[in-house]
Amino acid sequence: MSGTNTDMPAVIAHELPSPVPLDEIAACPVTDLFRRIGDKWSMLVVILLGKRAYRYNELHRSIEGVSQRMLTRTLRTLEDDGFVRREVYPSVPPSVEYSLTPLGVSLLAPLSALAEWAVANASPTSSGPTA
To answer: Residues 27-46: what's their mean pLDDT?
Structure first.
């Protein structure tokens, strides 16, 4: 099949060297994205912030099991990566609100497609895709 076949997924249509060099894997934007959002909390934070903006404590209460340290770390990483905006309002005490940036909003559609695929292919007795 040619690379112009529109029925072929882009990940298959792209030619890869054999063997794939480690530096190419490390430099791959897809690998980088999964590394950035594939941890335990990042996708959930992005999904919640996709619904609306949250204050820190409100977000913390919305995620059972996340420590303050991990939530802070996750938010900082997502902010550094350009997915999340942190806005400080001058009040006493200062109020901080988190929301998605346009880049974060643009992640919601492909993230939703991946989530829909995972749900459609999950076996009834496990949380993973069926074989």
So the answer is: 88
